[in-house]
Protein backbone atom coordinates (compact mmCIF):
# COMPACT_ATOMS: atom_id res chain seq x y z
CA UNK A 1 0.00 0.00 0.00
CA UNK A 2 1.30 3.48 -0.80
CA UNK A 3 1.70 5.77 2.14
CA UNK A 4 0.55 9.35 2.44
CA UNK A 5 4.05 10.76 2.02
CA UNK A 6 4.44 8.97 -1.33
CA UNK A 7 1.20 10.48 -2.54
CA UNK A 8 1.84 13.89 -1.04
CA UNK A 9 2.42 17.01 -3.08
CA UNK A 10 6.06 17.98 -3.49
CA UNK A 11 7.16 20.82 -1.27
CA UNK A 12 8.84 23.63 -3.09
CA UNK A 13 10.89 24.29 0.06
CA UNK A 14 11.90 22.24 3.11
CA UNK A 15 11.85 19.48 4.17
CA UNK A 16 14.38 18.01 1.80
CA UNK A 17 14.16 14.83 3.86
CA UNK A 18 10.86 14.19 2.06
CA UNK A 19 10.14 10.77 0.54
CA UNK A 20 9.62 10.82 -3.23
CA UNK A 21 6.30 12.36 -4.13
CA UNK A 22 4.07 11.09 -6.87
CA UNK A 23 4.79 13.35 -9.80
CA UNK A 24 4.63 10.96 -12.76
CA UNK A 25 1.78 12.51 -14.66
CA UNK A 26 1.75 11.32 -18.30
CA UNK A 27 1.70 14.22 -20.73
CA UNK A 28 -1.70 14.29 -22.36
CA UNK A 29 -1.57 15.22 -26.01
CA UNK A 30 -5.32 15.80 -25.92
CA UNK A 31 -5.08 18.69 -23.47
CA UNK A 32 -5.96 22.09 -24.86
CA UNK A 33 -3.58 25.01 -24.16
CA UNK A 34 -6.17 26.46 -21.79
CA UNK A 35 -6.45 23.20 -19.84
CA UNK A 36 -2.69 22.86 -19.63
CA UNK A 37 -2.49 26.37 -18.15
CA UNK A 38 -5.29 25.62 -15.66
CA UNK A 39 -3.67 22.33 -14.68
CA UNK A 40 -0.30 24.02 -14.15
CA UNK A 41 -1.97 26.52 -11.83
CA UNK A 42 -3.77 23.79 -9.86
CA UNK A 43 -0.51 21.89 -9.59
CA UNK A 44 1.24 24.81 -7.88
CA UNK A 45 0.60 25.23 -4.18
CA UNK A 46 2.21 27.72 -1.82
CA UNK A 47 4.28 25.84 0.78
CA UNK A 48 2.56 25.91 4.15
CA UNK A 49 -0.43 27.74 2.69
CA UNK A 50 -4.07 26.77 2.99
CA UNK A 51 -4.15 24.90 -0.34
CA UNK A 52 -1.22 22.68 0.58
CA UNK A 53 -2.78 21.86 3.97
CA UNK A 54 -6.12 21.09 2.31
CA UNK A 55 -4.41 18.94 -0.33
CA UNK A 56 -2.78 16.76 2.35
CA UNK A 57 -6.19 16.43 4.01
CA UNK A 58 -7.82 15.53 0.67
CA UNK A 59 -5.18 12.85 0.03
CA UNK A 60 -5.86 11.43 3.49
CA UNK A 61 -9.62 11.30 2.81
CA UNK A 62 -9.27 9.65 -0.61
CA UNK A 63 -6.57 7.25 0.51
CA UNK A 64 -3.01 7.12 -0.79
CA UNK A 65 -3.64 4.14 -3.14
CA UNK A 66 -6.51 5.91 -4.86
CA UNK A 67 -4.41 9.08 -5.23
CA UNK A 68 -1.55 7.15 -6.85
CA UNK A 69 -4.01 5.52 -9.27
CA UNK A 70 -5.66 8.83 -10.15
CA UNK A 71 -2.33 10.61 -10.56
CA UNK A 72 -0.82 7.88 -12.70
CA UNK A 73 -3.90 7.97 -14.94
CA UNK A 74 -3.62 11.76 -15.19
CA UNK A 75 -6.98 12.17 -13.48
CA UNK A 76 -5.91 14.27 -10.50
CA UNK A 77 -6.28 17.66 -12.18
CA UNK A 78 -9.49 17.17 -14.09
CA UNK A 79 -12.07 18.87 -11.87
CA UNK A 80 -13.43 20.76 -14.85
CA UNK A 81 -14.25 17.42 -16.52
CA UNK A 82 -16.09 16.17 -13.47
CA UNK A 83 -18.45 19.12 -13.03
CA UNK A 84 -20.19 21.47 -15.40
CA UNK A 85 -19.56 25.15 -14.71
CA UNK A 86 -21.25 26.19 -11.44
CA UNK A 87 -22.88 22.77 -11.12
CA UNK A 88 -24.98 22.32 -7.99
CA UNK A 89 -24.37 19.09 -6.12
CA UNK A 90 -25.55 17.47 -2.89
CA UNK A 91 -22.75 16.49 -0.55
CA UNK A 92 -22.34 14.75 2.82
CA UNK A 93 -19.76 16.57 4.93
CA UNK A 94 -17.41 14.19 6.69
CA UNK A 95 -14.64 16.38 8.13
CA UNK A 96 -13.77 20.02 8.74
CA UNK A 97 -10.61 21.24 6.99
CA UNK A 98 -7.90 23.24 8.76
CA UNK A 99 -9.10 26.35 6.96
CA UNK A 100 -12.75 26.22 7.86
CA UNK A 101 -14.38 24.29 5.00
CA UNK A 102 -16.50 21.20 5.31
CA UNK A 103 -15.08 18.38 3.18
CA UNK A 104 -17.10 15.65 1.45
CA UNK A 105 -16.09 12.89 -0.99
CA UNK A 106 -18.09 12.60 -4.22
CA UNK A 107 -20.06 9.40 -4.92
CA UNK A 108 -17.36 7.79 -7.06
CA UNK A 109 -14.94 8.20 -4.13
CA UNK A 110 -12.44 9.92 -6.43
CA UNK A 111 -12.78 13.59 -5.65
CA UNK A 112 -13.27 15.87 -2.66
CA UNK A 113 -15.43 18.99 -2.56
CA UNK A 114 -14.80 21.73 0.02
CA UNK A 115 -17.59 24.13 1.02
CA UNK A 116 -17.63 26.83 3.74
CA UNK A 117 -20.01 27.32 6.68
CA UNK A 118 -21.00 23.66 7.10
CA UNK A 119 -20.17 20.95 9.58
CA UNK A 120 -19.39 17.24 9.62
CA UNK A 121 -22.61 15.20 9.73
CA UNK A 122 -24.49 17.68 7.53
CA UNK A 123 -25.89 17.16 4.04
CA UNK A 124 -25.59 20.29 1.96
CA UNK A 125 -26.30 21.66 -1.49
CA UNK A 126 -23.27 23.43 -2.95
CA UNK A 127 -22.32 25.19 -6.17
CA UNK A 128 -18.92 24.12 -7.54
CA UNK A 129 -16.89 27.23 -8.39
CA UNK A 130 -13.22 26.27 -8.90
CA UNK A 131 -10.89 23.33 -9.03
CA UNK A 132 -7.60 22.27 -7.49
CA UNK A 133 -5.66 19.03 -7.50
CA UNK A 134 -7.99 16.16 -6.44
CA UNK A 135 -10.60 18.57 -5.09
CA UNK A 136 -12.93 21.43 -5.98
CA UNK A 137 -14.21 24.41 -4.02
CA UNK A 138 -17.91 25.16 -3.82
CA UNK A 139 -20.19 27.86 -2.43
CA UNK A 140 -22.71 26.75 0.16
CA UNK A 141 -26.21 26.98 -1.30
CA UNK A 142 -28.17 25.43 1.56
CA UNK A 143 -27.80 23.08 4.49
CA UNK A 144 -30.26 20.31 3.65
CA UNK A 145 -29.80 18.31 6.87
CA UNK A 146 -28.19 20.28 9.71
CA UNK A 147 -26.11 18.58 12.37
CA UNK A 148 -28.00 19.29 15.62
CA UNK A 149 -25.72 17.09 17.76
CA UNK A 150 -23.65 18.29 20.74
CA UNK A 151 -20.88 19.61 18.49
CA UNK A 152 -23.33 20.67 15.81
CA UNK A 153 -25.02 23.76 14.50
CA UNK A 154 -26.95 26.28 16.59
CA UNK A 155 -27.83 29.45 14.70
CA UNK A 156 -28.58 31.32 17.94
CA UNK A 157 -24.80 31.46 18.53
CA UNK A 158 -24.25 33.58 15.42
CA UNK A 159 -23.63 37.21 16.42
CA UNK A 160 -22.72 38.72 13.06
CA UNK A 161 -25.24 39.79 10.47
CA UNK A 162 -22.68 39.22 7.72
CA UNK A 163 -22.09 35.57 8.64
CA UNK A 164 -21.65 33.47 5.41
CA UNK A 165 -21.13 36.68 3.38
CA UNK A 166 -17.92 37.98 5.00
CA UNK A 167 -14.80 35.84 4.73
CA UNK A 168 -13.64 36.59 8.29
CA UNK A 169 -15.37 34.10 10.62
CA UNK A 170 -16.36 30.54 9.73
CA UNK A 171 -17.30 28.91 13.05
CA UNK A 172 -19.95 31.13 14.62
CA UNK A 173 -22.59 28.36 14.51
CA UNK A 174 -20.31 26.10 16.56
CA UNK A 175 -20.07 25.75 20.31
CA UNK A 176 -16.82 27.30 21.59
CA UNK A 177 -15.60 24.01 23.11
CA UNK A 178 -16.11 22.35 19.72
CA UNK A 179 -14.05 25.14 18.11
CA UNK A 180 -11.22 24.49 20.57
CA UNK A 181 -11.42 20.71 20.01
CA UNK A 182 -11.31 21.25 16.27
CA UNK A 183 -8.21 23.46 16.58
CA UNK A 184 -6.49 20.69 18.56
CA UNK A 185 -7.13 18.39 15.58
CA UNK A 186 -5.79 21.08 13.24
CA UNK A 187 -2.49 21.14 15.16
CA UNK A 188 -2.39 17.33 15.21
CA UNK A 189 -3.02 17.17 11.47
CA UNK A 190 -0.39 19.85 10.78
CA UNK A 191 2.29 17.83 12.57
CA UNK A 192 1.14 14.58 10.92
CA UNK A 193 1.28 16.06 7.42
CA UNK A 194 4.02 18.68 7.55
CA UNK A 195 6.62 17.59 10.10
CA UNK A 196 7.71 14.39 8.32
CA UNK A 197 8.24 12.91 11.76
CA UNK A 198 7.09 9.42 12.69
CA UNK A 199 4.11 9.44 15.04
CA UNK A 200 6.10 8.34 18.11
CA UNK A 201 8.17 11.54 17.88
CA UNK A 202 5.07 13.74 18.07
CA UNK A 203 3.64 14.09 21.60
CA UNK A 204 -0.10 14.14 22.26
CA UNK A 205 -1.36 17.57 21.32
CA UNK A 206 -2.66 19.30 24.45
CA UNK A 207 -6.03 21.02 24.73
CA UNK A 208 -6.17 24.38 22.96
CA UNK A 209 -5.54 27.42 25.15
CA UNK A 210 -8.89 29.27 25.13
CA UNK A 211 -9.47 32.97 24.61
CA UNK A 212 -11.20 34.61 27.61
CA UNK A 213 -13.45 36.50 25.17
CA UNK A 214 -15.03 34.79 22.20
CA UNK A 215 -16.41 38.03 20.72
CA UNK A 216 -15.20 41.65 21.14
CA UNK A 217 -11.61 40.45 21.50
CA UNK A 218 -9.92 41.73 18.35
CA UNK A 219 -7.71 44.74 19.01
CA UNK A 220 -6.88 45.58 15.40
CA UNK A 221 -9.14 45.94 12.38
CA UNK A 222 -8.18 46.98 8.83
CA UNK A 223 -11.32 47.46 6.69
CA UNK A 224 -10.64 48.62 3.15
CA UNK A 225 -12.31 50.15 0.14
CA UNK A 226 -11.70 50.37 -3.58
CA UNK A 227 -11.32 53.34 -5.92
CA UNK A 228 -14.59 55.18 -6.43
CA UNK A 229 -16.48 54.01 -9.53
CA UNK A 230 -19.80 55.23 -10.96
CA UNK A 231 -21.29 51.87 -9.89
CA UNK A 232 -20.72 53.02 -6.29
CA UNK A 233 -23.29 55.78 -6.79
CA UNK A 234 -25.42 54.35 -4.02
CA UNK A 235 -22.64 53.88 -1.49
CA UNK A 236 -18.91 53.09 -1.53
CA UNK A 237 -18.51 49.66 0.11
CA UNK A 238 -16.05 49.66 3.04
CA UNK A 239 -15.30 46.36 4.69
CA UNK A 240 -13.83 42.94 3.95
CA UNK A 241 -13.80 40.41 1.14
CA UNK A 242 -16.84 38.27 0.44
CA UNK A 243 -16.47 34.60 1.37
CA UNK A 244 -14.75 32.76 -1.51
CA UNK A 245 -14.43 35.91 -3.67
CA UNK A 246 -12.24 38.98 -4.03
CA UNK A 247 -15.37 41.16 -4.04
CA UNK A 248 -15.68 43.63 -1.18
CA UNK A 249 -18.69 43.54 1.12
CA UNK A 250 -19.84 46.65 2.95
CA UNK A 251 -19.51 46.02 6.69
CA UNK A 252 -20.77 48.44 9.31
CA UNK A 253 -19.55 46.60 12.40
CA UNK A 254 -17.46 43.60 13.33
CA UNK A 255 -18.59 41.73 16.46
CA UNK A 256 -15.22 40.07 17.04
CA UNK A 257 -13.60 43.52 17.38
CA UNK A 258 -13.64 45.43 20.68
CA UNK A 259 -16.41 47.97 21.37
CA UNK A 260 -13.79 50.73 21.25
CA UNK A 261 -12.86 49.74 17.69
CA UNK A 262 -16.48 49.46 16.53
CA UNK A 263 -17.31 52.88 17.95
CA UNK A 264 -14.36 54.49 16.16
CA UNK A 265 -15.16 52.53 12.98
CA UNK A 266 -18.59 54.18 12.72
CA UNK A 267 -16.97 57.62 12.88
CA UNK A 268 -14.13 56.75 10.48
CA UNK A 269 -16.55 55.21 7.96
CA UNK A 270 -18.59 58.39 7.96
CA UNK A 271 -15.44 60.44 7.19
CA UNK A 272 -14.53 58.18 4.23
CA UNK A 273 -18.09 58.12 2.88
CA UNK A 274 -18.27 61.91 3.04
CA UNK A 275 -15.49 62.13 0.42
CA UNK A 276 -16.19 58.83 -1.37
CA UNK A 277 -16.09 60.35 -4.88
CA UNK A 278 -12.53 61.64 -4.38
CA UNK A 279 -10.90 58.20 -4.02
CA UNK A 280 -8.91 57.45 -7.18
CA UNK A 281 -7.38 54.42 -5.49
CA UNK A 282 -8.48 51.96 -2.86
CA UNK A 283 -7.17 52.30 0.67
CA UNK A 284 -7.13 50.59 4.05
CA UNK A 285 -8.27 52.04 7.34
CA UNK A 286 -6.34 51.22 10.52
CA UNK A 287 -8.21 50.85 13.81
CA UNK A 288 -6.17 49.88 16.82
CA UNK A 289 -7.45 49.45 20.36
CA UNK A 290 -5.16 51.00 22.98
CA UNK A 291 -4.98 51.80 26.66
CA UNK A 292 -5.25 55.55 27.20
CA UNK A 293 -2.03 57.57 26.95
CA UNK A 294 0.06 57.46 30.10
CA UNK A 295 -0.41 61.14 30.84
CA UNK A 296 -4.20 60.91 30.57
CA UNK A 297 -4.32 57.79 32.76
CA UNK A 298 -2.27 59.75 35.28
CA UNK A 299 -4.83 62.52 35.36
CA UNK A 300 -4.22 65.00 32.56
CA UNK A 301 -6.78 65.29 29.77
CA UNK A 302 -6.38 66.32 26.14
CA UNK A 303 -3.78 65.37 23.55
CA UNK A 304 -0.76 63.80 25.11
CA UNK A 305 2.72 62.97 23.84
CA UNK A 306 5.36 60.61 25.06
CA UNK A 307 9.01 60.39 24.06
CA UNK A 308 8.23 57.80 21.32
CA UNK A 309 4.83 58.71 19.97
CA UNK A 310 1.48 60.20 20.61
CA UNK A 311 -2.23 59.46 20.87
CA UNK A 312 -4.97 61.91 20.13
CA UNK A 313 -7.57 61.82 22.91
CA UNK A 314 -10.69 63.74 23.53
CA UNK A 315 -11.11 65.73 26.75
CA UNK A 316 -14.48 64.09 27.46
CA UNK A 317 -13.22 60.53 27.67
CA UNK A 318 -12.83 58.90 31.08
CA UNK A 319 -9.17 58.90 32.00
CA UNK A 320 -8.87 55.09 32.07
CA UNK A 321 -11.11 54.36 29.03
CA UNK A 322 -9.43 52.61 26.08
CA UNK A 323 -8.96 54.63 22.90
CA UNK A 324 -8.82 53.78 19.22
CA UNK A 325 -5.69 54.83 17.32
CA UNK A 326 -6.10 55.33 13.57
CA UNK A 327 -2.73 56.79 12.56
CA UNK A 328 -0.10 54.12 11.93
CA UNK A 329 2.65 56.39 13.37
CA UNK A 330 0.82 57.03 16.63
CA UNK A 331 1.46 55.20 19.85
CA UNK A 332 -0.52 52.21 21.12
CA UNK A 333 -0.28 50.98 24.72
CA UNK A 334 -1.01 47.53 26.15
CA UNK A 335 -0.44 45.99 29.56
CA UNK A 336 0.45 42.28 29.31
CA UNK A 337 1.53 39.95 32.12
CA UNK A 338 2.09 42.92 34.42
CA UNK A 339 4.32 44.77 31.95
CA UNK A 340 3.62 47.87 29.86
CA UNK A 341 4.12 47.75 26.11
CA UNK A 342 4.14 50.67 23.72
CA UNK A 343 4.52 50.48 19.95
CA UNK A 344 3.52 52.22 16.75
CA UNK A 345 -0.04 51.44 15.62
CA UNK A 346 1.34 50.38 12.23
CA UNK A 347 3.80 47.82 13.61
CA UNK A 348 3.20 44.23 14.67
CA UNK A 349 1.54 43.37 17.97
CA UNK A 350 -0.65 40.33 18.77
CA UNK A 351 -4.30 41.17 18.06
CA UNK A 352 -6.14 39.59 21.00
CA UNK A 353 -4.84 41.23 24.17
CA UNK A 354 -7.17 39.15 26.41
CA UNK A 355 -5.36 35.86 25.81
CA UNK A 356 -1.81 37.22 26.00
CA UNK A 357 -1.39 36.90 29.78
CA UNK A 358 -2.20 33.19 29.64
CA UNK A 359 -0.11 32.68 26.48
CA UNK A 360 2.95 34.33 28.00
CA UNK A 361 2.41 32.57 31.34
CA UNK A 362 2.02 29.22 29.58
CA UNK A 363 5.40 29.67 27.86
CA UNK A 364 6.90 30.74 31.21
CA UNK A 365 5.46 27.62 32.93
CA UNK A 366 6.91 25.35 30.23
CA UNK A 367 10.34 26.86 30.81
CA UNK A 368 10.15 26.68 34.61
CA UNK A 369 8.98 23.05 34.39
CA UNK A 370 12.01 22.23 32.25
CA UNK A 371 14.27 24.09 34.68
CA UNK A 372 12.98 22.38 37.81
CA UNK A 373 13.35 18.76 38.83
CA UNK A 374 16.43 16.57 39.13
CA UNK A 375 17.07 16.28 35.41
CA UNK A 376 16.22 19.93 34.85
CA UNK A 377 18.44 22.17 32.81
CA UNK A 378 19.29 25.57 34.27
CA UNK A 379 17.87 28.02 31.79
CA UNK A 380 19.64 31.29 32.45
CA UNK A 381 19.51 32.99 29.05
CA UNK A 382 16.72 33.73 26.61
CA UNK A 383 17.06 34.61 22.92
CA UNK A 384 13.83 36.15 21.64
CA UNK A 385 14.01 35.75 17.85
CA UNK A 386 11.48 37.69 15.73
CA UNK A 387 10.82 39.67 18.92
CA UNK A 388 8.64 42.54 17.65
CA UNK A 389 8.41 45.17 20.38
CA UNK A 390 9.67 42.68 22.97
CA UNK A 391 6.48 40.92 24.11
CA UNK A 392 7.88 37.50 25.07
CA UNK A 393 11.42 38.56 25.96
CA UNK A 394 10.33 41.34 28.32
CA UNK A 395 7.35 39.51 29.83
CA UNK A 396 9.64 36.55 30.66
CA UNK A 397 12.81 38.52 31.47
CA UNK A 398 12.45 37.93 35.24
CA UNK A 399 13.05 34.17 34.68
CA UNK A 400 16.48 34.82 33.12
CA UNK A 401 19.86 36.41 33.83
CA UNK A 402 19.95 37.92 30.35
CA UNK A 403 17.66 38.28 27.33
CA UNK A 404 18.71 39.09 23.75
CA UNK A 405 16.07 39.92 21.15
CA UNK A 406 16.36 40.27 17.40
CA UNK A 407 13.87 41.77 14.98
CA UNK A 408 13.97 42.92 11.36
CA UNK A 409 11.86 46.06 11.90
CA UNK A 410 14.08 48.77 13.35
CA UNK A 411 10.95 50.59 14.48
CA UNK A 412 9.85 47.60 16.58
CA UNK A 413 13.38 47.28 17.98
CA UNK A 414 13.23 50.94 19.03
CA UNK A 415 10.05 50.14 20.95
CA UNK A 416 11.47 46.92 22.42
CA UNK A 417 14.33 48.99 23.89
CA UNK A 418 11.88 51.64 25.02
CA UNK A 419 9.64 48.98 26.64
CA UNK A 420 12.59 47.52 28.53
CA UNK A 421 13.25 51.01 29.99
CA UNK A 422 9.57 51.61 30.64
CA UNK A 423 9.38 48.49 32.80
CA UNK A 424 12.77 48.99 34.48
CA UNK A 425 14.15 45.83 32.82
CA UNK A 426 17.93 46.07 32.62
CA UNK A 427 18.87 42.54 31.52
CA UNK A 428 17.46 42.75 27.97
CA UNK A 429 19.31 43.79 24.79
CA UNK A 430 17.71 44.15 21.36
CA UNK A 431 19.32 43.94 17.95
CA UNK A 432 17.87 45.15 14.64
CA UNK A 433 18.43 42.69 11.79
CA UNK A 434 17.51 39.36 10.31
CA UNK A 435 16.92 36.71 12.94
CA UNK A 436 20.14 34.85 12.10
CA UNK A 437 22.16 38.03 12.84
CA UNK A 438 21.74 37.32 16.56
CA UNK A 439 24.26 34.48 16.26
CA UNK A 440 26.92 36.77 14.75
CA UNK A 441 29.21 39.06 16.75
CA UNK A 442 29.76 39.00 20.49
CA UNK A 443 26.24 39.51 21.85
CA UNK A 444 25.81 35.85 22.84
CA UNK A 445 29.41 35.39 24.07
CA UNK A 446 28.31 34.75 27.64
CA UNK A 447 25.25 32.64 26.66
CA UNK A 448 26.26 29.07 27.54
CA UNK A 449 24.36 26.93 25.04
CA UNK A 450 23.27 24.42 27.69
CA UNK A 451 21.67 27.24 29.68
CA UNK A 452 19.97 28.99 26.75
CA UNK A 453 16.40 28.93 25.45
CA UNK A 454 15.70 30.29 21.97
CA UNK A 455 12.14 31.48 21.54
CA UNK A 456 11.07 31.80 17.88
CA UNK A 457 7.93 33.62 16.71
CA UNK A 458 8.31 34.11 12.95
CA UNK A 459 5.79 35.36 10.39
CA UNK A 460 3.37 32.91 8.67
CA UNK A 461 5.99 31.71 6.16
CA UNK A 462 8.09 30.29 9.02
CA UNK A 463 11.86 30.51 9.45
CA UNK A 464 14.47 30.96 6.74
CA UNK A 465 16.88 28.09 6.10
CA UNK A 466 19.75 30.38 7.14
CA UNK A 467 18.19 30.94 10.56
CA UNK A 468 17.43 27.25 11.18
CA UNK A 469 20.97 26.24 10.22
CA UNK A 470 22.47 28.82 12.59
CA UNK A 471 20.08 27.80 15.33
CA UNK A 472 21.19 24.18 15.07
CA UNK A 473 24.82 25.29 14.99
CA UNK A 474 24.27 27.37 18.15
CA UNK A 475 22.75 24.27 19.80
CA UNK A 476 20.56 25.76 22.59
CA UNK A 477 19.21 23.53 25.36
CA UNK A 478 15.58 24.49 24.66
CA UNK A 479 13.70 25.90 21.68
CA UNK A 480 10.20 27.37 22.07
CA UNK A 481 8.45 27.83 18.73
CA UNK A 482 5.38 30.10 18.71
CA UNK A 483 3.62 30.51 15.37
CA UNK A 484 0.48 31.81 13.72
CA UNK A 485 0.83 29.10 11.04
CA UNK A 486 0.93 25.61 12.53
CA UNK A 487 1.78 24.11 9.12
CA UNK A 488 5.06 25.95 8.58
CA UNK A 489 5.71 25.52 12.32
CA UNK A 490 5.34 21.73 12.00
CA UNK A 491 7.54 21.76 8.87
CA UNK A 492 10.33 23.74 10.62
CA UNK A 493 10.14 21.66 13.80
CA UNK A 494 10.28 18.44 11.79
CA UNK A 495 13.34 19.83 10.06
CA UNK A 496 15.05 20.67 13.38
CA UNK A 497 14.33 17.23 14.85
CA UNK A 498 15.38 15.34 11.71
CA UNK A 499 18.42 17.48 10.88
CA UNK A 500 19.68 17.20 14.46
CA UNK A 501 19.24 13.40 14.18
CA UNK A 502 16.72 13.60 16.98
CA UNK A 503 19.01 15.32 19.45
CA UNK A 504 16.05 17.64 19.73
CA UNK A 505 12.78 16.07 20.81
CA UNK A 506 9.39 17.71 21.15
CA UNK A 507 8.44 18.15 24.83
CA UNK A 508 4.99 19.66 24.24
CA UNK A 509 2.70 21.05 21.55
CA UNK A 510 -0.51 22.97 21.96
CA UNK A 511 -2.66 25.40 20.06
CA UNK A 512 -3.75 28.79 21.39
CA UNK A 513 -7.00 30.35 20.22
CA UNK A 514 -6.10 33.94 19.44
CA UNK A 515 -8.96 34.20 16.95
CA UNK A 516 -12.24 32.60 18.15
CA UNK A 517 -14.94 32.12 15.46
CA UNK A 518 -12.24 31.89 12.76
CA UNK A 519 -10.12 29.00 11.48
CA UNK A 520 -6.86 30.68 12.60
CA UNK A 521 -4.83 28.78 15.15
CA UNK A 522 -1.62 29.77 16.94
CA UNK A 523 0.77 26.97 17.88
CA UNK A 524 3.21 26.73 20.81
CA UNK A 525 5.76 23.92 20.77
CA UNK A 526 8.69 23.27 23.09
CA UNK A 527 11.74 21.33 21.95
CA UNK A 528 14.39 20.06 24.25
CA UNK A 529 17.87 18.97 23.31
CA UNK A 530 19.32 15.86 24.89
CA UNK A 531 21.86 17.24 27.34
CA UNK A 532 24.42 15.99 29.80
CA UNK A 533 22.62 16.39 33.11
CA UNK A 534 24.18 19.17 35.15
CA UNK A 535 26.42 20.24 32.28
CA UNK A 536 25.64 23.86 33.00
CA UNK A 537 25.36 23.69 36.76
C1 LIG B 1 4.58 37.03 14.40
S1 LIG B 1 5.47 38.48 14.68
C2 LIG B 1 6.00 38.21 16.34
C3 LIG B 1 6.46 39.42 17.11
C4 LIG B 1 6.59 39.24 18.62
N1 LIG B 1 7.18 38.01 19.00
C5 LIG B 1 5.24 39.42 19.32
O1 LIG B 1 4.66 38.42 19.72
O2 LIG B 1 4.80 40.56 19.44
C6 LIG B 1 6.86 38.22 13.71
C7 LIG B 1 7.90 39.31 13.74
O3 LIG B 1 9.01 38.89 12.94
C8 LIG B 1 9.56 40.03 12.29
N2 LIG B 1 10.36 39.47 11.18
C9 LIG B 1 9.94 39.11 9.95
N3 LIG B 1 10.96 38.56 9.25
C10 LIG B 1 12.04 38.59 10.05
C11 LIG B 1 13.39 38.15 9.91
N4 LIG B 1 13.84 37.58 8.79
N5 LIG B 1 14.22 38.31 10.95
C12 LIG B 1 13.81 38.90 12.10
N6 LIG B 1 12.54 39.34 12.30
C13 LIG B 1 11.66 39.18 11.30
C14 LIG B 1 8.35 40.86 11.94
O4 LIG B 1 8.73 42.21 11.76
C15 LIG B 1 7.45 40.64 13.17
O5 LIG B 1 7.67 41.64 14.14
TrEMBL record:
Residues annotated as catalytic: 484
Coiled coil: none
Family matches, as Gene3D superfamilies: 2.40.50.1070, Nucleic acid-binding proteins, Vaccinia Virus protein VP39
Superkingdom: Eukaryota
Family annotation (InterPro entries): MeTrfase_TrmA_AS, NA-bd_OB-fold, SAM-dependent_MTases_sf, TRAM_dom, tRNA_(uracil-5-)_MeTrfase, U5_MeTrfase_fam
TRAM domain span: 82-142
Binding site for S-adenosyl-L-methionine: 350, 386, 407, 457
KW Translocase (keyword) present: no
Pfam families named among the record's database cross-references: tRNA_U5-meth_tr
Region (Disordered): 1-49, 294-322
Keywords, in A-Z order: Methyltransferase, S-adenosyl-L-methionine, Transferase
GO molecular function, one term: tRNA (uracil(54)-C5)-methyltransferase activity, S-adenosyl methionine-dependent
Biological process per Gene Ontology, one example term: methylation
Family affiliation: Belongs to the class I-like SAM-binding methyltransferase superfamily. RNA M5U methyltransferase family.
Protein name per its UniProtKB record: TRAM domain-containing protein
Organism listed in the record: Mixia osmundae (strain CBS 9802 / IAM 14324 / JCM 22182 / KY 12970)
Gene that produces this protein: Mo02619
Amino acid sequence: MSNLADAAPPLAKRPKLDTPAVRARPSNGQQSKRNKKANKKQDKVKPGGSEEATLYHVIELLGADKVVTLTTAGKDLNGSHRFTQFQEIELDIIELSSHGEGLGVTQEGEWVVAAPFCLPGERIRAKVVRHARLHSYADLVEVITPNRGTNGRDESRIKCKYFTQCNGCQYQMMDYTAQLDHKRLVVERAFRHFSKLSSELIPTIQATLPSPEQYKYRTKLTPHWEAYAPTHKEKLPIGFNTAGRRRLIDIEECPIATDTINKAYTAERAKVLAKATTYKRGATMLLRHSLPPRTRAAGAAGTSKTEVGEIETSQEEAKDAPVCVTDSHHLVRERIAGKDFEFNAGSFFQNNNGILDSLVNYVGEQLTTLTSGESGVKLRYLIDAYCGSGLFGLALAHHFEAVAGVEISSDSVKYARHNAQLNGISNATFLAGKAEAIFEGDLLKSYAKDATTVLIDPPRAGCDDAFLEQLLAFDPAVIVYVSCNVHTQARDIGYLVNKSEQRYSIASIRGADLFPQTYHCEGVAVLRRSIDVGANA
